[in-house]
Amino acid sequence: MDSLNWKTDIDNDKEVPKINWTALQEFVINLRNSKSEKPTTRNCHIHEKYNLGGLHLARILEFDDGMKWIARIQLHKLTSELEKRLFHEISTLSILHEQTDVPVPEVYGYETNPDLIGRAFMIMQFIPGNTGTDFTSFRSKDIPPQFQAKFYHEMARIHASLTTSKAFDIPSPSNKDDVIESTGDYPRRIKEHRFDITVRNEGPFPLKHADFLHSNVIVDAEFNVLSIIDWEHAGTVPWERVEFPMFLYTLPPALDFPWRYDDDGKPLADDTRKLWEKREEYVRSVAEAEKEMASDDGLSSILGSIYYQNLSSCYTRALDDFTPDRSVGVPINKGNED
Question: Could you tell me the residue range of the domain that residue 87 belongs to?
Fold first, then answer.
């Protein structure tokens, strides 16, 4: 518990809404007992430490026998959109936990009736670690150098598992016409190749984590990956939408100034060159994982293709331009809970 980089002064945190903590304790005690043939749980202690991330508040719940759970509580009053996200994340986590080897927390229960504690929430497995950005910033170069290779390799294996799992073998429409419409005349080659943009029209299609970044990766002090969190925006996508993890993001050459590259198309900036090298190593790790899983080279071939990475970046930027912001409001003060 001492190793968690969490906050402790929740009573004075204006971002935290009013919560009925006693009702939450009663809920989880009943939930724990309902999962046991011989109910013995009588007490639940809510730890002082808490964490705020995006649109949620996390509190640690500890029972008599030392078992710990997490309450993940929505910061805002429930809307139809927030309820949809909650159910989507619960379903995604359940499938990942039951049918894949992707490390995710198990979901034990949830409640959408805000009258119970004041907000909708879910109860999850406690993973004893911090997110990667609790140790670093969002930049890949700030991941401790001695742990980078191991961390990238573990993330590559998880990435490969997401794209090879049959648990999410759900048909997804080709978006090539949307890409063309949203990008207009840029790049011109998209229109020229509009009928061979899609790699696999027939599927299966990969599962994409919308924020595949180390802020959503729980690690220990040596950056061993313990769990991937925040799946509320995950979904199956065409292969052309698959990109590198965001900690390895760099602006594609097709979207950058040409004078930043040499005659061979390599970046002139030293930092960018090093990032390209890390990306190449990541692709090799993905290829190794695909071989170990006896799967095809779908992910490594997409990540290793400048053409498809340019296309994916164009599409992502188009979505950023034309899709409403995913946030639902500003932090709530206790005096104004609406």
Answer: 10-128
